[in-house]
Amino acid sequence: MSPRPRGRALPGVLTRPAAPPDRVIRYGDHPDQIIDVRQDGDRPDAPVVVLLHGGFWQAAYDRCHTRPMADELARNGYVVCTPEYRRIGQPGGGHPGTFDDVAAAVDAVLTDPPAGGGVVLAGHSAGGHLALWSALRHRLPATSRWHARLRIRGCVALAPIADLGRAIELGLGDGAGRELLADRLGLLAETDPMRLLPYGPGTLVLVHGTADRLVPVELSRRFAAGEPSATLIELEGAGHFGLIEPLSRSWPAVLDAIGLVAGRAALPRPLRT
User: Fold this and answer.
1) Which branch of life, at top level (predicted)?
2) Which residue in 4, 54, 14 sits closest to 160, CA to CA?
3) Fewer CB atoms near the end CB (10 Å): N or C, the chain?
4) Are 193 and 222 in contact (CB under 8 A)?
5) What is the DSSP string of 219-238?
6) CA nearest neighbour of 83 among 45, 47, 130, 152
């Protein structure tokens, strides 16, 4: 997401109220080092989705705007873990704190999963960047503080900033990528998913709308062209926020992508009334 355009309302999914989480996991001492957990009943064998929110890594946007999506995923049989993390504009946000927090949050879920159906990483926009980066941590040097081979089913990146270097060239998010790295572009070697390829055996699915004006589909196309194992699903005419809006026409494709990676592509969907 980029800062709110003057005179234009925010998309409804960013402001719509949603229920509080069923419980909260703390993975550090900072107030934002927490993970919301949502589940619909006792589902010990449910797949777990770690859902990383977007917002161009900026403090103005937090995990609350993904609550409608998380609620709907929980209704569809998933246990959903939505981490918060330190962001640009907060003490410790940006590099390395944002990456420290995301790595710690994902590791906390994997160390003690709230259900036994395997873990899927997912993320939207800047959260898609962080989800892909997390999935590729095994490609970091062994000496890196973040190096790890995660035991996950795969990754679903929604309208992701999959090519951080290109996003910086384009000036997306009013230069948020440069701000994330404090203008130290040498850090792209350890923070840009494109520069950590190849992923290797596993499942990577990217979903991107062709009418996305905030994060152009070009970034996902570049990533998919560089990673033979990646599947890119382009949604004709879809914009940026429809991918996290359960009321949108894009939502069934998102649900199918997550179900595919989770091994439950035929999950029953609750009827709307």
Assistant:
1) Bacteria
2) 54
3) C
4) no
5) HHHHHHHH-TTEEEEEETT-
6) 130
Beta bridge partners of 259: none
Go through the domains of the chain in sequence order and give each one's CATH number: 12-262 (3.40.50.1820)
| 108 and 27 Cβ atoms separated by less than 8 Å | yes
Q: How many residues does the chain have?
A: 273
Half-sphere exposure of 156 (CA within 13 A, CB side): 23
What Rg do the C-alpha atoms of the chain give, in angstroms?
A: 17
Residue 120: strand, helix, or coil: strand
- Separation between Cα atoms, residue 17 and residue 122, nearest integer Å: 22
Three-state DSSP state, 83: strand
- Beta-bridge mates of residue 81: 37, 50
Cβ neighbours for 54, distance < 8 A, ≥ 6 positions apart: 1, 61, 123, 124, 125, 126, 127, 128, 159
Whether the CB-CB separation of 88 and 94 falls below 8 Å is answered with yes
pLDDT digits (tens, 9 = 90+) for 39-66: 998 888 999 999 999 999 999 999 999 9
pLDDT tens by residue, 117-136: 999 999 999 999 999 999 99
